[in-house]
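Lab notes, practical 5.
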Amino acid sequence: MTLPQIRNAMKPFHKACLPKSGVSPDVWEATHHGEFPPDPALQCHYACLLTKMKILTKDNKISKELLGKQMDLMLPNDVIGPVKDICDTCYNEATSSDVCEMSWQFVKCYHEINAELSLMP
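Output from the prediction step:
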């Protein structure tokens, strides 16, 4: 799949997570412009998305193993290396014990390193 196809495939996850997280459309749209406010609804929206992507474990931790498997299944060969490097870095940056905040830290870190490789819808 191409990155645009992956982002498109993520849209149903985003829509399914909206009622659960309650993130405002303005806050969500701002993330597409590099703004990641520490909004609890946004943070929990990312936790929901990562759960639907099957990279969070049952104890609400990011699994490097699950993350690697999903990347191998979905990502085009030309971006797999850079995306894995970003994920390794951000895995170590996402240190909160709160699943919502940790998910937000991971996604924010990823975007700050290379927004063009973002998988978020």
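Observations recorded by the TA: The two ends are 14 Å apart (CA to CA). The domain at 3-115 is CATH 1.10.238.20 (Recoverin; domain 1).
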